[in-house]
Structures are given as structure tokens and as C-alpha cells.
Design goal:
Blueprint: H1 19-43, H2 49-76, H3 80-101, H4 104-115, H5 124-139, H6 146-176, E1 178-181, H7 191-203, E2 209-212, H8 215-224, H9 228-239, H10 255-271, H11 277-281, H12 290-323, H13 333-345, H14 349-352, H15 358-373, E3 376-380, E4 391-397, E5 400-410, E6 420-425, E7 428-430, E8 433-435, E9 438-445, H16 458-475, H17 492-495, H18 497-503, H19 509-515, H20 527-535, H21 541-561, H22 569-580, H23 596-599, H24 609-627, H25 632-643, H26 651-659, H27 666-671
Parallel strand pairs: 5-9
Antiparallel strand pairs: 1-2, 3-4, 4-5, 6-9, 7-8
Helix pairs in contact: 1-2, 1-3, 3-6, 4-5, 6-10, 12-21, 15-19, 16-18, 18-24, 21-22, 25-26
């Protein structure tokens, strides 16, 4: 049987990939890689880039090209068979990673290269890849005694399994809850949301409307539905997913998963001599230490807390005076917030939606990229995809094919919620040729309904720009060493810089003129509507800031203090909420059980990165404000110093090279409408 995962192709052969292919391919590649590494080391030194770095990179890339489509499909087209195959390989891959990271022979080979005269002859990217490798060997436990090495490996393997289990529980709990309703049950719900719910019912073979916990269904209910009892019911179902509470209490419960993850992270960090997992996490980030992170978050809280409280008091007063609501619950905040926003600024999301059809927004996004970086984006019509919704695009710089990306925009069952970018192929040198980078851009937007295209909200438009910013970081790299190409080797608290940076163009009138266009007439946003939209940009910005600080502080304190000052998750979350939050949720709320960023993704002790990088992005954009938002010289500088460098130099050095100084917090506060 030929295995498509072993084919050396520029793009994954999705139509030929079956679940049965996964385990044989991965096990075969791991075995081949181990054998090749043993042979390489048997030859001995002296070690050079050609004799050590290049062959190891070839082995890593072969495994990555096979595993990438598997991991992607598990997130966007989940099935029982694929899940089983995926989970069967998670432990194998973790064990292999530990074997590599603790391989004394490999470690000594890298150290010999670093200590040799040949090291000075390496280019900057190669030198940085060696430095990162030596750091990562130590973070993988290469210096540990034998028994501790084994324990470290067991922990990493188990953590991989637990992270996958956490995500599966969230996905299954999200897909499990559905509610059939009639239009009479959802007064106030916009026609766009009703159409989505009607289409969901038809696809499920049901009458009327079908509500789900996918964002295109959940958010409109919370924002517009006049039926408070229904809002509460939907809210409870959403915020108790995968927990011991709510309509599926105890089923897919992540409680024990969370505790085991935290215990193992703590143990792993201590094995390496770190006081906490937070301290271990910072070994690869920009932030100097745990005190620096806490000081940063507390500084933002100090600047924003008073404004957030004032905004909440305003909302309470409005709800009481205009709607007779004497107290606000968590399921009321978005509902009355939208009413207040409409009253203050005479603008609603539904008024804006018709001007943001997805294809017009995409065309506008590509125009922004063209003006900033001289890059043309072209759609590929004929390709091997995995779902009818998926599209493929290419980036061209004149006649040069720069990169490709898959675009998967709409929510559907068996697809992980949220939005993300992931790499499919990394830019690297293969012999005399450069491998063209490829990435996946995934969102969960409202799908088209009938002949009506997908109409985006402001938030969805911003999300699209955000993820494309990540994509550009991966795709516009000029590095040819995989370890520092694209986002590889970039500190996690700098990874969000290009993504948050690109969001700024969503709020520039000059850009919105071609980003927007009515889906029926093609007319751009009317000037008067545009001005109202811009005036409303920072509505409840203080509340939004403290919400993100709540997540960041909870995550960081949890991983800094677990096992010492903190032994139970919920009391810590309650404490953080008391300190910074203005919306106090009900006791049954189990936000942490669906916090996939830190328990199923890569943001553990790193959620602060969103705010850290937001400071960088706001300050970077302030140069465009000074020099012109489409200034080609400024765009070329950002591309050269930030996007093209990848992880080949320190993130702060790259920022200073672009901005001419270290970052300031002032532009972020100004952009957010918060007093400095």
C-alpha cells in the first residue's frame, strides 16, 4: 500500500489521506530518523553545517510534512477514526522529541560545532539555530541523571496526551449541546442569525431553528435575544462545557485533566531546577522573569481598572434607567452593552454587516498587503482540498512564488472553535532549491446562507486580519534555516506582534474604503456610518482590557504558584476576578474547563503574550501613523526587520531595528482610549 503521507509533495494530498495511513507513516518516519541520526553520529566530527545541521533539518522536515496535515485535519475535520489515529501517534511523537532532546551524542555534536572555529563562519541564522538547539537540549533534560531523564520523558508524553484529551472534551461538549426553538422564542435575534439557525435545523433534519454553541450561533443570542431565560440557558451551556456543571455535568469533564496537567508541569519544571512552570516557560520568551510579567500586567490593570469600573457603572445605570433592570448578570452584559452602544453611537453590528461580505473583505485585505509589501495574492482554483469550504491562495512578488495558504473560514460540526494559523510547509533550503512556505488559516465565521454570502462583523473582520498577520509572519520570511524560519524560534511573547499589528488597518478610513462594500450594491461604507463606527471603536475598551488581564493573570499566577500558594484552580480564578474583573459570573461558571489556549494549546504561562505583543504592535503602528499608513518605505522596513527575520535574531533587537527605540506602552493606551 502506498502511503500518501510519505509522498514528497509541495502540498498535502488531502483526498488520498485516510486514518489508516497515519500510524504506519509516523512510526516509519520516526524509526528511519532514529537510524539516520545514529549513522550520522557514528561518522563522528568535525561537525559543520553541511554534516550536522542540514541532514538533521531534512529529517525533521520529512516528519513535519507528514504530521502537519494529520494535526490539521484532526482540528478541522475531526472523526472517530482520525482521532484514534492522531492519539495513537501523540505519545510516539512526544517520546521521539524527548529522545532527540536528551540525546547525549547529538548534544555533544552541537556543542562541538558551537565551540569550533567553523562556528564563526556560519551565517546569523545558522548560529542562532545552534544557540537555540543547545538551550532546548537543556530544557529537554539532557543534563539530568538517567532516572530523571526517564521521568521527564514520561511527563512530556503524558502532557501531550492530556492536551489532546482536553481539546477533544471541549470539542465534544460543544458539539453535543443543541436546542430547537421557534422564531417566537428568539425575539430580537437579527435575520442573519435566524437564517443561520434555520439552515442548521434543515441540515440536522429538524423543524424551526437550531441553536448551537458554535460562535456564529452563540454570540448573536447573547448579544441580541430579548428572551433573558434563553440567554441564561445558552450562557450556562457554554460556560460549563467539559466541566462538572451545566446540562452535561460530569460528561467530558476536564477537571481531573486540568489538575494532572498542572501537577505534571510543576514536576517537569522542578526536575530542570526551575521554581515553577512559569519560570520554565520564560526561558524561551522575551520577558526577563516572573516579576517582570506580573509588573507589566499590574501596570496595565492600574491604567485601565478605573475606566473599566466606570464603564460597568454606566451600563448598570443604563439598564436600570432605560430597561428597568435592577441588577446585571453575566448573560446580560453583551445584550445591554449592544443596546447602549447603539444608543450612544447610533450604530449596530447588523447595520455594518451588509458592508463586510467575506470576499470583499478578503480583497481589501489583499490590497492592504499589496500596498504595504508589494505582494500580490492570487486564488488557485484547482487543488486537492479536504472540504468544499476550503480555498487555496498564492503570494507572488513579481514573478516569484513566495508562499501558499489554505483558507478555512466557516464554523461547522467536528471543527475546533476559535481561529488560528498553523504551518504546513516551512521555508528552508532543500539542496539548491528553496521550499515554498505554506500555512493554514482557520476561522469559525458565520457561513453563507442560501444566496447570501458570509457577512462579517467588525470582530470577525479583525480576526481575519489578525490570523493573516500570523500567516504573513510565516510566509514572508526570508530565512532558509527551518529552526528560525517564519515563526520558528520567535519568542512566544513576540509571536503576536505581526498579527495584532495588521488589525490596525481595520480602523483606518483610507483602508476601509476598499475593505468594505455592500454585498448587493458594492457601495463602500457610507461616510456617516463609517464615522459612527469609528467613534464606537473604543466602546467599553476598559472592560475589554480587564477581561484580557483576568485571563492573563489567572494563567500566569496559576503556573507560577501551583503546588505552593495555589492548590485549587477555582479559588484562584475567583480571587483574580475579584481583583480585576467588573463582571462577576455565577458560581457554576467553569471558564477554565474550556480555556484551550493554556490547557490544549501553547499559551501556558504565556497568555500575557497577547498584551505584551499588543504593546509592540501599537508602538510599531505609531510609526505608520507618523509616516503614512501605506508608506511603502515604512512597510518595507517592517517586512525586512520583523517579518523576514523570523527567529534569526533577538525579538527586541528586531523591534528596535524597526522602531529606533525600545517599545512604549503609551500608543497601546492611546489606541484603546485609556488615559496614560
Amino acid at each position: 500500500m502506498t502511503n500518501p503521507l510519505l509522498d514528497d509533495l509541495p502540498l498535502p494530498p488531502f483526498s488520498r489521506i485516510e486514518a489508516d495511513h497515519v500510524e504506519p507513516a509516523i512510526k516509519s518516519l520516526i524509526a528511519d530518523n532514529k537510524s539516520a541520526i545514529d549513522t550520522l553520529l557514528e561518522r563522528g566530527g568535525p561537525y559543520t553545517a553541511q554534516s550536522l545541521l542540514t541532514p538533521l533539518e531534512d529529517l525533521d522536515d520529512a516528519l513535519a510534512r507528514a504530521w502537519s496535515p494529520v494535526g490539521h485535519l484532526n482540528g478541522v475535520l475531526n472523526s472517530d477514526a482520525l482521532r484514534a489515529a492522531y492519539n495513537a501517534c501523540i505519545g510516539e511523537l512526544s517520546a521521539y522529541s524527548t529522545w532527540m532532546g536528551q540525546h547525549e551524542g547529538l548534544f555533544q555534536a552541537y556543542r562541538a560545532l558551537a565551540d569550533s572555529q567553523d562556528f564563526d563562519a556560519l551565517d546569523e541564522a545558522q548560529q542562532k539555530s545552534v544557540e537555540h538547539a543547545l538551550r532546548d537540549f537543556r530544557l529537554a533534560g539532557v543534563d539530568l541523571p538517567t532516572e530523571k531523564k526517564a521521568r521527564f520523558g514520561d511527563i512530556r508524553k503524558r502532557l501531550s496526551e492530556l492536551g489532546a484529551k482536553f481539546s477533544e472534551n471541549v470539542l465534544d461538549a460543544t458539539d453535543a449541546w443543541k436546542k430547537s426553538v421557534t422564531e417566537d422564542d428568539v425575539p430580537g435575534l437579527p435575520e442573519t442569525a435566524i437564517a443561520v439557525a434555520r439552515q442548521a435545523a434543515e441540515q440536522a433534519g429538524k423543524e424551526g431553528l437550531l441553536l448551537t454553541l458554535e460562535f456564529p450561533s452563540y454570540l448573536p443570542v447573547m448579544t441580541y435575544c430579548d428572551n433573558e431565560a434563553l440567554r441564561e440557558e445558552v450562557y450556562e451551556a457554554f460556560c460549563t462545557r467539559a466541566s462538572d456543571q451545566g446540562p452535561h455535568a460530569g460528561r467530558w469533564d476536564n477537571s481531573e485533566v486540568i489538575t494532572e496537567i498542572l501537577n505534571l508541569r510543576k514536576e517537569m519544571a522542578e526536575l530542570l531546577g526551575f521554581a515553577s512552570f512559569a519560570e520554565y516557560s520564560l526561558a524561551t520568551k522575551m520577558a526577563e522573569d516572573t516579576d517582570a510579567v506580573m509588573a507589566f500586567l499590574e501596570q496595565l490593570a492600574q491604567h485601565s481598572s478605573e475606566q473599566a469600573q466606570a464603564e460597568w457603572s454606566e451600563l448598570e445605570a443604563y439598564a436600570q434607567e432605560r430597561h428597568g433592570k435592577t441588577s446585571l448578570n453575566a448573560w446580560d452584559a453583551a445584550y445591554y452593552g449592544e443596546k447602549l452602544r447603539q444608543e450612544k453611537f447610533q450604530v449596530s453590528q447588523e447595520e455594518i454587516r451588509p458592508y463586510l461580505p467575506v470576499d470583499r473583505v478578503l480583497t481589501g485585505l489583499f490590497e492592504v498587503v499589496q500596498r504595504l509589501y508589494g505582494i500580490a495574492v492570487k486564488e488557485v482554483e484547482d487543488f486537492d482540498g479536504y472540504h468544499p469550504d476550503v480555498r487555496l491562495f498564492e503570494l507572488h512578488n513579481d514573478d516569484e512564488l513566495v508562499a501558499r495558504f489554505y483558507l478555512d473560514l466557516y464554523a461547522r460540526p467536528n471543527k475546533r472553535g476559535g481561529a488560528w494559523m498553523d504551518d504546513c510547509r516551512v521555508r528552508r533550503l532543500r539542496g539548491s532549491d528553496v521550499q515554498v512556505p505554506v500555512d493554514y488559516l482557520v476561522c469559525n465565521f458565520t457561513p453563507p446562507v442560501g444566496d447570501t454570502p458570509s457577512l462579517l462583523t467588525e470582530a470577525e473582520m479583525t480576526t481575519l486580519f489578525h490570523e493573516f498577520g500570523h500567516g504573513l509572519h510565516h510566509m514572508l520570511t526570508r530565512q532558509t534555516v527551518a529552526a528560525v524560519s517564519g515563526i520558528n524560534g520567535v519568542p512566544w511573547d513576540a509571536v503576536e506582534l505581526p498579527s495584532q499589528f495588521l488589525e490596525n488597518w481595520c480602523w483606518e478610513p483610507e483602508a476601509l474604503a476598499f475593505i468594505s462594500g455592500h454585498h448587493e450594491t458594492g457601495e463602500p461604507l457610507p461616510e456617516e456610518l463609517l464615522q459612527r463606527m469609528l467613534r464606537a471603536r473604543n466602546f467599553q475598551s476598559g472592560m475589554q482590557m480587564v477581561r484580557q488581564l483576568e485571563f492573563s493573570l489567572f494563567d500566569f499566577r496559576l503556573h507560577r504558584d501551583w503546588g505552593d500558594k495555589v492548590t485549587d484552580v477555582q479559588p484562584l480564578l475567583d480571587e483574580v476576578r475579584t481583583a480585576v474583573a467588573v463582571i462577576q459570573p455565577p458560581a457554576y461558571n467553569r471558564f477554565q474547563h474550556g480555556f484551550s489556549h493554556i490547557f490544549g494549546g501553547g499559551y501556558a504561562a504565556g497568555y500575557y503574550s497577547y498584551k505584551w505583543a499588543e504593546v509592540l504592535s501599537a508602538d510599531a503602528f505609531s510609526r505608520f501613523e507618523d509616516e503614512g499608513i501605506f508608506n511603502p518605505v515604512t512597510g518595507a522596513d517592517f517586512r525586512r526587520h520583523i517579518l523576514e527575520t523570523g527567529g534569526s535574531r533577538d525579538a527586541m533587537d528586531s523591534f528596535v531595528a524597526f522602531r529606533g527605540r525600545k517599545p512604549s506602552i503609551e500608543p497601546l493606551l492611546r489606541h484603546s482610549g485609556i488615559a496614560a
